[in-house]
Every structure is written in C-alpha cells, then in structure tokens.
Amino acid sequence: MARVTLEDVRKVYPNGFEAVYPCSFTVNHGELIVLVGPSGCGKSTLLRMVAGLESITEGEMSIGDRVVNDVDPADRNIAMVFQNYALYPHMTVANNMGYGLKNRGMAKAEIEQKVNDAAKMLNLSDYLERRPSQLSGGQRQRVAMGRAIVREPDLFLFDEPLSNLDAKLRNQMRIEIRSLQRRLDTTALYVTHDQVEAMTMADRIFVMNAGRIEQIGTPSEIYHHPQSTFVASFMGAPPMNLLPARTTGNTHVELADDLALPLVSHVDYAGPVQLGIRPEDVRLKDGGDGGTPFKLDIVEELGATRLLHGQLAGHAFTVAIPHEERSFDDTLTLDLPQDALHLFDHETGRRL
Amino acid sequence: MADITETSAPATRATPAAPTRRRINWGVIGDHAILIAGSLFMLVPVCMVFMTASHDPVTIHREGLQWWFGEELEANFSAALFERGGFTDTVDGMRMLTNSLILGVGFAIGKIIISMMAAYAIVYFRLKFATLAFWVIFTTLLLPLEVRILPSYEVIQSMGLTNTYTGLIVPLIASATGTFFFRQFFRSVPEELIEAARIDGAGPLKFFIDILVPLSRTMIAAIFIIMFVFGWNQYLWPTLITTEEGFFTLVRGIRQIVQVIADGNAIPEYGQAMALAIIAMLPPVLIVVFFQNWFVKGLTESDK
C-alpha cells in the first residue's frame, strides 16, 4: 500500500525563486493523480521532488509509512517515465528494462523472467534484443513503461510521457497507461500540460499555477466547478468565457446596464465580478422573449461541433453548438442557462 | 547544391543548339586538378621512400632518391626489422616497433582514461571550483612538453624513472584537449539519462562505467586515433628519457641509423632507414583506417 503524503512541502531555489509554495496533500493507494498546469508552474519540480531528484526545502514527504525527505531516489521504490524516455541508447531493450534490477543485485534468471513478463504485457517480446534507436516512438515509450513496471514500484511517476508522440498514438497510449496502472494497482503521479490527458486519465486532478496548487478535484469537479478563473480558463477547449460583470447583492448579475441575468441563488456580494460560462453550455434561442444578443464574427467548423466567435455585451465570446444547428445570421440570440453561470471574484479570481 | 545549378544551367542552354556536344565543365576539372595535385604531393614522397628502400646504400648514397624498384627490397626490410644494430647490438626493428606501440597505445589509453575521469569530475560533481579547475587544465594547453621539458625531466630523473615505460608515458598523458572534448561531450548527454540512472540505482561509478563509457565510444575512438598518432610520433621526450637502446622507439631508431655517418664515416644504411620509415608509417595509417570504419559506424548508428 503506497500512500503519498506531503505536508507543507516547499521548494525554494538557491537564487530565491520559490518554485513550489508550501502545499499539503495525500495521494491514496492506487490513485492516478494528474498534475496539470502551464509550463513553469512547478508541476515537474513537484514530481521531481517526489522522485528525489530535487531536494525538498521545507516540509515532510512520505511514501507509504516512510518519510523520504533524505532517501536516495533509488531507495524510494519508485519508477519514473521521462518525456524523452531516457532509455540507455547503448543497451538492448531487455538490458534497459533490467538495468535497475541488476543494480539491486537480483539474480539473472529472475531479471529475465520479470523482463519477459513485462515485455509480454507491453507487446515488446519481439524487440527485446533491439536497441532503442531501432524502435518507433511508441515502442520506445513502451520500453520506458516496461522499465518502470519491472521494478514493481510503490509509485509511478510520469513526466509528460506522451508529449513526444503523435496525436493518434498519444490517444492509444493514454488508454494503455491508464489500464496498465489500474491492472497493476499502483499509485501514480502524472505530470502533463495537456488538459485532455488530465481529464481522461485522472482519478483526481491537481491544477497548478505559478507554484501553487489552485484546485484539487475529480475531472468533473474541476470542469464543472472551477474554483478560480485560472482553472476555468485552463481546463476546457475552447476555454470558459469570462466577462466582466457586476452583482447588486440580489439574485441577478448585470453584464451591462440593460442586461441582467438571473442567478440560481442569492449572492450577497455586491460589486464587480467575473462571470464565467462554458461555450458548450450556451444555447441558441429560436425566438420568443428574452435572451442575450450576440454579434457573430467567425464560425469555426470542427466537425462534431461548431464554434461561433463574436461579441456579447461588447466582449469577446465563444459559443459551441452541435453540428446539426442551422445556418447563422450576424446577430443571434443566446440563452445563458442560469445553472451554467459561474461567478468569480473580480480581483482574486476565486469562486464566489 | 551549388554544383547542380552550375552544371545544369549551361547544359540546358547548350542542348537545343548542339545536343551531342557536351560542354567542358572547367569548374569540375579545376576541382579535380587541385585534388589530384594534393594527393600526388602527399603520396609521391611516400612512394619514393618505398622505392628507395629497395636499393643498396651505395646506390642511394651516390644517386640519391630512386624512382624505381631495385633488388634489395626484401633484404632491407628484413634487415631493418630483424637485424640487431645500434651501439650495443641488442636492438632490432621489432624491438623498436614494440616500444613504439607501447608508447603509442599507452599514451593514447592513458590520455583517454585521465581526461575522461577529469571531465567526469568537472561535469557531474558539484565541486566548488569545478569551472576554475577546468580552466586551469585548459590553460595547460599553453604549456606543451617543450616548455616544461627541463622540470619534467628533473622530476622523472629524480624518481628514477628514466629508461622505463612509465617514465616514457606518464609525464605525457595529462591532456587538456582530451579533457575539453570529453567535457563538451558529457555536457551534451541528456540530463534525464542521469536521472534515470539514479532512479535505477546506479551510483557514480556504475553510471560512469555502465553508461557514460559506452556512450562515449565514438569520442574515445576519435581521441584514440589522434592521440595514438601523436604518441607514436613523439621524438623529443623519448630521446631525452631513454638512453638504453632497448627502449628506443622507431622514430628514434631511424635517426640512429643515419647517425653513423657522423659517428664513423661509414655509409649509412639508407635502404634500411627508408624501410624503417615505411614501417614507422604503417601503424598510424592502419589505426586510422581501422578506427575510421568503426568511427563512421558509430556515427551513423547514432542512437541518441
């Protein structure tokens, strides 16, 4: 059983740059946690701290029941898959996978057994005697996975493992990694900047921004209840529309002087806010009363959906509609469902 | 690319007027002329040495270098290789060949080991003055053997290492160039590889032997070629440090043969000297040919 617990873990580089602000969380056994965020947000640093490749400035980290702050990476019983796979170019696939075991002093026959098992699991049996240079990108990726598997670690660490693959292979590997992790019942931390990977693979997502964890939650929580404008705009493609608006302390939010939208519940706060709404939550209105006028500029055809870009109350706004919708005039009327409205603090961006 | 555009442009112009006539491409001819002249310049002296080596010393002494083969080729070569000569009559060509090989190989391997280890320390360990240390090593490029020959000799002599292979090789193996090349190479090894090795439980020594050394094989081959030839051609230091003829290298031996003209007014064994010169040329050529194959293979099989 491997739980990973971080208590007020913090990373400050010698030059004073605070890469990771103090953060605390627990990863339960068997969970796949995705750390997602823009580049430079500290997600890789955090992962490398768990791996032991970066020192921990402050705080306490434990894997299982053991505090690992000062434990060498090799002794943490973890396995890491790197973005560029970091396979040893001069070793065969079998040696690549078995190198860690060999260094642990495992018997040759046992290593071979484990390597063969892992190779079978990953469809690499025919390639065991090849060098990494003779493999395709996807196969290399699998060798890197194999190297992680044979160690039977308590914890898998993935550092953007799919970003060097083409889109099709990436989708396939995403599913493979997920099912493998489930089958092996191993806790995993997975770093990516790709929100699709985050949404599809994670049991829980940690959204990071500028060294801080902005939100922890299941993919659906993250998507439907973003706790800040950052999360709202980072997760989802196209991102959530964010419009300046104001509340008046009752059940309405005003986009403009003559444009007020009803809210689900009463909001006490009065003053400027940011109003968020997902493009796909917006409906086109066929007529009738009410609705919000929308000036259409550009239509993007995506096949399954269409994206309508335009202006709403003088601000850029995007609407995603199913492909079977009709053709469009320059001015449309939108229906903004009240349960799809998100309100965020004007200054801090936190959810209200 | 430039070549293609140059050749095709006149061709298209000429085709409609006179389809059968090909224009002479002076550019290509000029290039080849330069190349041919260059190779002749390099090869003719070698051929002359080889041909001269097949004559007896009297002919050579009278007529100078020869332009065709004589009768004495075999005799000269076997004499050069197997006839004991020198002042003490103990050293033959084979002995000198062995000495030269020991010097060349020892020199090259020593340099590779020392400079690899130095570069490893500089690149991978958080030493306080690593950069400074590197630049100090690098500035020794300004202090070749010729500059420090007296102190070096003094040290070796006081250690009693004259007339030993150790004395012959060790003072020469510290190499700024080698350290520099390996440093640059190590710095290009991806960081993740080191981290993967750390997670795989490879300590500094294992990482060096299991991963860094195999990765550097092409570098090692390249430096081996350069350093072997460099060591093989050493003249000044062996002359100084070896006084016993049993330690003479080939390069020294050649001179020794010609020396007799000054010593004893005899006609030197020119033919043998030429034969010895050919023999002295062969190993570096073979090394280059052999390792070049290997080198190119290593480069094309690029697996990084």
What layout of secondary structure does this protein have?
The complex is a heterodimer of chains A (352) and B (304).
Chain A lengths: L3 E9 L5 E10 L4 E5 L6 H9 L6 E6 L2 E2 L10 E4 L11 H11 L4 H14 L15 H14 L4 E5 L7 H18 L2 E6 L2 H7 L2 E6 L2 E6 L1 H6 L4 H6 L6 E8 L3 E5 L2 E4 L7 E8 L5 E2 L7 E10 L3 E8 L2 E8 L8 E5 L6 E4 L7
Parallel strand pairs in A: 3-8, 3-9, 6-7, 7-8
Antiparallel strand pairs in A: 1-2, 1-4, 4-5, 9-10, 11-12, 11-14, 12-13, 14-20, 15-19, 16-17, 16-19, 17-18
Helix pairs in contact in A: 2-3, 2-4, 3-4
Chain B lengths: L1 H16 L8 H27 L4 H7 L9 H10 L10 H32 L5 H10 L9 H10 L6 H5 L6 H13 L2 H9 L4 H12 L1 H16 L3 H6 L8 H15 L5 H31 L4
Helix pairs in contact in B: 2-15, 4-5, 4-15, 5-6, 5-9, 5-12, 6-9, 12-15, 14-15
Please, could you describe this protein's structure?
The complex is a heterodimer of chains A (352) and B (304). With 352 residues, chain A is of the alpha+beta class. Chain A has helices spanning 43-51, 93-103, 108-121, 137-150, 167-184, 195-201, 219-224, 229-234, and strands at 4-12, 18-27, 32-36, 58-63, 66-67, 78-81, 155-159, 187-192, 204-209, 212-217, 241-248, 252-256, 259-262, 270-277, 283-284, 292-301, 305-312, 315-322, 331-335, 342-345. The radius of gyration of chain A is 24 Å and the shape is elongated. Chain A starts with a strand and ends in a 7-residue tail after the last strand. Chain B is mostly helical. In chain B, helix 4 crosses helix 5, helix 5 (93-124) runs antiparallel to helix 6 (130-139) and helix 6 (130-139) crosses helix 9 (176-188). At the A-B interface, strand 6 and helix 2 of A face helix 10 and helix 11 of B.
